[in-house]
Amino acid sequence: MICNKKYALTLLTLLAVLMPADARRKPKVEPKIKVSCVGNSITYGMRIENREQDSYPVQLQRKLGDRYEVGNFGKSGATLLRHGHRPYFEQEEFRQAMDFAGDIVVIHLGINDTDPRNWPHFQDEFVGDYLALVDSLRSVNPKARFLIARMTPIGSTHSRFISGTKVWHGQIQEAIETVAHAAGAELIDFYEPLYRYPWMFPDAIHPNVEGAGILAKTVYSGITGDYGGLQVSQMFSDHMVLPREKPFPIRGRANAGERVKVTVDGAVYQAVADNRGAWSVTIPAHPVETGAELRIETPGRSLVYTDIAFGDIWLCSGQSNMEFEVGQTTSASDVAADPDLRLYDMKCNWRTDNVEWPASALDSVNHLQYFKPACWTHATPETLRRFSAVGYYFGRALRDSLQVPIGLINNAVGGSTAESWIDRETLETRYPAILRDWTRNDLIMEWARGRALKNIGARKALKEGEPCLGDSSRVYGSVYATVPCADHITRHPYEPCYLFEAGILPLDHFPITGVIWYQGESNADRVEVHEDLFPLLVDSWRNYFSDVPFYFVQLSSLNRTSWPIFRDSQRRLLESRPGLGMAVTSDLGDKTDVHYKNKKPVGERLALQALAKHYGHHVAADGPLAREAVLVDGKVLVDFGPQTGLHASDGGSIVGFEVLDAADGLYHSAQAQVLPGTSDMICLDASFLREPTLVRYAWQPYTRANLVNGTGLPASTFRLKLQ
Q: What phi and psi values does residue 603 have, to the nearest 5 degrees?
């Protein structure tokens, strides 16, 4: 019997030390969660200089931490299709993925299936082959969680982009969504986060290190559900205007599965964020109101917005004459505070003046950080001084007539081109030629291209070994891709798509009432191109914002030779889409200054368009618009449709009409008068001409044509064949 307690304790300690190791009590170690990254060269990390450190699976490992083990099973050139030229099923990486038996499987395949050897011949097998791949990987771990990725973009510089790659890519995306649904897998998106950043794809196929980081972040959020907590559009702030008398959505992001509560004036609406962090609630039609409160809450965060108004919201956009500020006008003193006129003014970080931008600007522009942060403010003499003059006088006229709150969003950019405001998908599918080598592309005005090159300092030597766009191509994996010049990597506001991506997408589908647009100066030398682009612009914005009215300004008078043709083209474009309206300004221009200072009538004429055509008020909105011209007994009769009170604006003779005599090929001035007994017909004396064939009006760059209607609205420039 052992009586000494100290001795007994020492003996027990010695026995514990001598005890076999497997008999000791071990702390429980949780097994790592295995993540299989299955894919092609993009998963592998092709074109990333240090892929062992920077491919997306490696970056994902760093984000997930030690609790996870990420395996990279990417195979360059691999196709999903079993009958493709390099089936993933037959590669060593597939066998390695099977052995790894991931608990989470991320699949990104399909890019190489766009090859003409594959998709045109075996597309009907794609869904079945994809499901077979999922079943195979699931067989080694029946409890595995599958994340199937929509494919990364293929850039428009790809050598086969127009011939089929773009179309086939879209078809495969649809098939992938079908697969995810049929397989009971989660769909994640590798496309949308990268689509706006073509410079991240130096060869139009493979993302660079930063692009791979975006993929890693996308997968990380898909796995963990961490999307950074509650977030809403940058458009939300105190004093904002929301739509009156019609339902509208409020949407945003939150962590996956989080409950979101939206409270408007005591009414509560709820949603749950989906696996991609998206949530949305629909607010029922709300009457006109000011001073409302909006709360958006999750368990971890609360956002409160006060002094909310319910009214109408108009987007004021275009180039410098829309950007032109109230403080620069001849009517700068004619402003007044109005708490129910609210402004959201998006100012540029860098103006497109004739200077070279610093390197910091180029990086920010590449990342679409072109506009300064903005918030909603009341209209005061101080806030209005730097706001769009056309926008202000438009909004003020609506306030006077409607007596409801009006919100104005201004994001006009001086010198900007029409193509820069059109979304990428629209141009890729309906006008891809304008995307090719845009700083050398003759579809774009030389002035705009030259100014862009000046700003970005783009005339640099090519990177060693990289041919210029169109000179040659290389093979990466199995996909041929043209390598662009170094100076095509830096972006600019005049580039096709840029301002849509930097200035429209941040509006996040905000429920606007309509658009007023003043642009064309930077497309005026490419009339036929603009005739293609303008309807695409309208379609692009209506697709993004819903089918909103679109009212635009016809170019004014200025000594630039192409402007009469362009003004007439704008007149004809009125018929290209429903819901359009045009304000004529040829009577307001300055002979030598494109930025004439009398902007008040422009805004008011746009307001007449909106009041008559959108709000249904009985006001005259259009000046005289010629419909047809006929030759009768030596007289040219020009029909201006339903007009009243046609007369000369200065009270004298009507001037500005010319008739072409085919016998000598010259235009001749013609005396004009209102046809007796009518209010909408002009009669021209052509009796002195041998073969009159065409009539035109206001066909000078800076015109003194003076025909107006009874309300003083001017007639549009036009040219018509005689019937």
A: -60, -40
Whole-angstrom distance, CA of residue 670 vs CA of residue 110: 66
Whether the Cβ atoms of residue 152 and residue 215 lie closer than 8 Å to each other = yes
CA angle 312, 395, 317 (to 5 degrees): 85
In this predicted model, what pLDDT tens digit does every residue of 159-171 receive, in sequence order?
899 988 999 999 9
pTM of the model: 0.92
44 contact partners, CB below 8 Å, separation of at least 6? 51, 55, 72, 74, 75, 76
171, 173, 176, 177 alpha-carbon torsion, rounded to 10°: -110
Q: Six-digit token pair at 122? A: 């075996």
Q: Could you report the per-residue pLDDT of 563-581, keeping only the tens digit for each?
A: 999 999 999 999 999 999 9
pLDDT in tens, 350-387: 999 999 999 999 999 999 999 999 999 999 999 999 99
How far is Cα 642 from Cα 633, in angstroms, rounded to an integer?
A: 24
Q: CB of 114 within 8 A of CB of 126?
A: no
CB atoms within 10 A of CB 605: 27
For residue 503, count other CB atoms closer than 10 A to its CB.
23
SS3 category, 325:
strand
Are residues 717 and 710 in contact, defined by beta-carbon separation less than 8 angstroms?
no
- The answer to whether 38 and 8 have CB atoms below 8 angstroms apart is no
Return the minimum-mean-pLDDT range out of 25-34, 135-144, 615-624: 25-34
CATH numbers and ranges of domains, the chain: 33-224 (3.40.50.1110), 628-721 (no CATH)
What is the CB neighbour count within 10 angstroms for residue 316? 27
pLDDT at 28: 73
> Residue length, the chain?
723
Spatial contact of 73 and 38, defined as CB atoms under 8 Å apart: yes
pLDDT per residue over 287-333, tens digit each? 999 999 999 999 999 999 999 999 999 999 999 999 999 999 999 99
CA angle in degrees (0–180, nearest 5) for 372-376-380: 105
Q: What is the predicted pLDDT for the residue at 1?
A: 38
